[in-house]
Amino acid sequence: MHLSVERLRDFYAGKNIKPPSLKSQKIYSFSNHPLLESCLASLIPYFDMKDIPEDIASIKITEAISILRTLDKEIDHVLANFDEPGKISLVDYMEKHFMFNLPMEQFGYLTGRSLTTFKRDFKKPSVPHRSAG
Fold first, then answer.
1. CA–CA distance, 74 with 84 (Å, rounded to integer)
2. Cβ(12)–Cβ(80) under 8 Å?
3. Could you give the CA distance from residue 110 to residue 114 in angstroms, rounded to a whole number?
4. Fewer Cβ atoms within 10 A, N terminus or C terminus of the chain?
């Protein structure tokens, strides 16, 4: 089952939920829960069909989201967060973490960059240079 951003936006459109930006990533695991098992098991008959009818797929996705929200009251912070992922501020990160002796590859990874992009972004001036007047 795929919870696309579009489906999640539709689900949360009528709800007044403003999740905070994610500070850390967490892996959620809901193994062996009867509600989820039942929801997923109810999809098995549809696997023999070439296409699941759109209205049924929508209902099943809504059911799955509702179950997740029942199991974990904090899940809205993840599911309703539509911030664009991207690179974090290199200046802010390096100012806070410069004292750690990490390889550049690790600094790149921790700031959401490849090594090449990290080196390129690191060389960019963060404030435009002003000529002496």
1. 20
2. yes
3. 10
4. C
* Tokens of residue 80, six digits: 């309703």
List b or e across 63-84, with b for residues whose CB sees 16 or more CB atoms inside 10 angstroms.
Answer: bbbebbbeeeeebbbebbbeee
Do 92 and 123 touch, CB atoms closer than 8 A? no
List pLDDT tens digits, range 55-110. 888 899 899 999 999 998 888 888 887 765 567 777 777 888 777 778 888 888 88
Pair of tokens at residue 41 = 């098991």
Q: How far apart are CA 60 and CA 45, in angstroms?
A: 13
DSSP 49: S
Please give the Cα distance from 108 to 23 (Å, whole number): 18
Task: For residue 23, give both structure tokens.
Answer: 């500070």
Q: How far apart are CA 57 and CA 68, in angstroms?
A: 17
CA dist 50 and 28 (Å) reads 31
The verdict on pTM exceeding 0.85 is no
**Euclidean distance between CA atoms 21 and 82, whole angstroms:** 9
Q: Enter the tokens of residue 90.
A: 């290199």
